[in-house]
Amino acid sequence: MEDIKKLIEQGFELHRQGKVHRALEFYLKAISSNSKNPNLFFLIGTAYLQIKDFENSVIYLNKCIVLDPKNIGAQNNLGGAYQNLKKYSKSIEVFKKLLTINPKFTEAYNNIGNCYFQLNEHQDAIENFKKSIEIDPKNFVAYSNIANVYRELKLFEKSILNYKKSIELNNKYFLAFNNLANVYKDISKFDEAIINYRKAIKINDKYVSAYENLGNVFHETAKFNEAANNYKKAYDINQDHHYVLGRLIHNKMYICEWAEVESYRKALISKLKDNKKVSTPFELLSIIDDPEIHLLASKMYFDEKYLTNNFEISKMKKNKSDKIKIGYFSPDFRNHPVLHLIKDVFKHHDKSKFEVYAFSFEKYKNDEFTAEIKNFFNKFIEIKDLSDKEVYELTREIDIDIAIDLCGYTAFNRVKLFSNRVAPMQINYLGYPGSIGTNFMDYIIADQIVIPKDEIKNYSEKVVYLPNCYQPNSNYEKLKIKDLRKKDFSLPEDKVIFCNFGSNFKINAKIFDSWMSILEKVPNSILWLLKSNDESVENLKSEAQKRNIKKERIIFASKISQKEHLERLTLADIYLDTFPYSSHTTASDAIRMGIPIITLIGRSFPSRVCASILEQVNLSKLVAKTNEEFEEKATYFGNNRNKLLELKEELVNSCQTSSLFKIENFTKQLETIYINLVKKN
After folding, report:
1. Are strands 425-428 and 443-446 parallel, antiparallel or unpaired?
2. Using one digit for the tens of pLDDT, what is the confidence trace for 70-87?
3. Structural domain total, the chain
4. CA dihedral 380, 384, 385, 388 (to 10 degrees)
5. Is 421 in the same domain as 568?
């Protein structure tokens, strides 16, 4: 008996010192000799809770409660363990039992509220937080939690008021400052958001989420250097903090600052293989060419970020109309590459067979593209201010048959919306070149090149193939090009003009090596790139000089309107693609304007889009399988003017007959897929 007491005392002293694993060793030795001590079960269960072994925590805390049913500490910790296991209903049950023992235990009401919040039972959550405040009017945590609920419900004014009340009660509560900043970010008050993130950091300079969130604001406002600096601070505090490493790499790539990117990339891949959530799916697409890892990241991201909605919604009714009802869901019904591609599909949908609805995640009142397309739909619906539940009820009222998500994991997505089904059939298409990694997205629309048959296993969706390129494009028309002069764009008259007009985050050190090698082998040439930000311009010039290429041989183009961009493309000679995230819309633009593209094909969806486009214009000979081949092809045409002119003529002739630019036929093929899927299901 004395030995058991001594073991418990030794364990407790280690526990008090924060050496929880060592404490457990002593506790478990003691329990092997005595299984009737409720306090020992409590200590073991609590220790397991602290080291995040929640399953074992539940086992031992339950044993404690059997022996000591009124042990409030055990009840509280058990509820917390169930909460961490996402068994929210079970957690609520435990906390409610605790309240029968001590009705004034404010923390229990708070925890019940958090569980209801996770279950999307928002009113029950608010009621329990308010009960906590009734017992303790100075409960600043409860006010902050109420604010969390109001933010979720998009009741931003109420959310702000409650965060401010929480801060008023405790001006050192850094979580409230951080969450208040999140609301300001939601409503695009970025200056206020930055101020409050910095207040949170001032209180707690190790608060990693505030640095991450500050980075998010700077990224959203295109201040990529500031974004990278804050992600770096977050990473230095916690290298495994969810998604921050991917964001750090992504923003370093936006400014073309590659010095540390390769070491970060290797660390990221290693961590992902260990099932650590270190990159969002979208950011990963430009970092690694591996659809298996892309799928893994998507699955982990959804499981972490988006709980399935559990609130009660009305059942789906079968559409009794003769027409198939299609809903397109996107934040990008605006001047955006996705809309540039698909807008004529909306226009040419057969309205005798289909009712077509747009569900816009954002509001773009003054966007000319938004104004143009609104008449293409039976109804254009803005759902930015609608909760998920309200959207569900709306789609059920309309009886949508097919929901097409044009966004995936790109910016301003609402992937969670599809978790409880806005339609009996849900399709991932066009906006995100990869798998969503969930069981509720039924299909992905592709072609045989972007998803080869041997890669189907790396997609959670069933793959549906279009007969030609998966990417829609408007009809081929020769633009009336005004008389453009190269000197107006600072371009030399007598040089071969290689170009790329993709986003900077697609450029990495390895593909830039190839570009510079091409410039070296084609001495009478320059590289024409899109100017994204000042930092990238300086960094790219510096990187060129490191590779013995004069910085003057890189010329930067400003962002201009789509029509003006298409016009100036005609001044270029050869488009050099990026890898592993190839050109998509920009590839179609170049091809349309008669500019041949040299691309490098990989395994992943985004690395194969340009190859698919080239196949449709009978120019698969421009698809390389290695960096060396990529450089050889570009060098050959760069140094052979006559062959380049022949290639351009071949491209122009092919465009006139290619299926790539026959949008009416494309729309019919897409509609055939919709019809067949409805019949099948």
Report:
1. parallel
2. 999 999 999 999 999 999
3. 3
4. 100
5. no
Helices assigned H by DSSP within 379-486: 388-398
Q: Are both 247 and 349 inside the same structural domain?
A: no
Q: Identify the pLDDT of residue 320.
A: 72
Assess contact for 295 and 435: CB atoms under 8 A.
yes
Query: Tens of pLDDT along 451-463?
Result: 999 999 999 999 9
Instruction: Decide if 78 contacts 55 (C-beta within 8 A).
Output: no
What span, in angstroms and rounded, lies between the C-alpha atoms of 243 and 234? Answer: 10
User: Mean pLDDT of all residues in the chain?
Assistant: 94
Question: In sequence order, what E strands does 483-570 have?
Answer: 496-500, 525-530, 554-557
Q: Is the dihedral of CA 267, 273, 276, 279 positive or negative?
A: positive
Both 523 and 392 in one domain: the answer is: no
Q: Spell 300-339 as b/e; 16+ CB within 10 A means b.
A: bbbeeebeebeeebeebeebeeeebbbbbbbbbbbebbbb
CA separation for the pair 69, 64 (Å, rounded): 8
First to last CA, the chain: 68
Q: Looking at the structure, do residues 272 and 352 belong to the same domain, yes or no?
A: no
Q: Under 8 Å CB-to-CB from 60, ≥6 apart: which residues? A: 41, 42, 44, 45, 48
Are 231 and 332 in a shared domain? no
What's the domain range around 269? Answer: 206-310
The order of strands in the sheet holding 379-382 is: 379-382, 354-360, 324-330, 402-405, 425-428, 443-446, 462-465
Q: What's the rounded mean pLDDT across residues 88-114? A: 95
Beta partners for residue 428, in sequence order: 405, 444
Can you give the pTM of this predicted structure? 0.91
Give the domain CATH number at 253. 1.25.40.10
Same domain for 268 and 386, yes or no, is: no
The per-residue pLDDT for 305 is 72
Is 327 in contact with 422 (CB distance < 8 Å)?
yes
Distance CA 193, CA 189 (A): 6
- DSSP-derived 3-state class of residue 576: strand
Q: Which of 377, 330, 332, 380 is nearest to 356 (CA)?
A: 377
